[in-house]
Amino acid sequence: xxxxxxxxxxxxxxxxxxxxxxxxxxxxxxxxxxxxxxxxxxxxxxxxxxxxxxxxxxxxxxxxxxxxxxxxxxxxxxxxxxxxxxxxxxxxxxxxxxxxxxxxxxxxxxxxxxxxxxxxxxxxxxxxxxxxxxxxxxxxxxxxxxxxxxxxxxxxxxxxxxxxxxxxxxxxxxxxxxxxxxxxxxxx
Length: 188
Known about the structure:
The chain has helices at residues 2-62, 67-80, 87-110, 112-116, 118-153, 157-164, 177-180.
């Protein structure tokens, strides 16, 4: 009889251990997905940051007296490319950069020669593509964060995350008030 009880207890302990390990590994996988998703946002933001100096140079020749707009873009780019920014700080810096880029693109409306410049038009198209990719990467990141938070807050993840202690919440990449207002720029 004692052997049967010991066998049942051993089986229960084995099942419990398997359950804890499986849940912990799922949390690790989801945490890593949020980190990989953030890295994809970073890749797309870097691509956008690489386009900006070319846009500024292209506009500078046609709109030299729009110095404040050009300098605002350069300054915002510098702030957005700063090292060590967390999700919230990065989102805020990117919001400022997006607003200043909108003003730069709007210069094309004021300067027909700039609007007609093939190089500037190509850069605008690349920037629009980059913006689409950034939006998708942000959406994917926020979805990964939501899935991770759900796993952390629901049973059994909430129990295992307290035992493991290495699983903390992630910040969402949220658009600020300026990004929520629709910017209207016509390229036609």
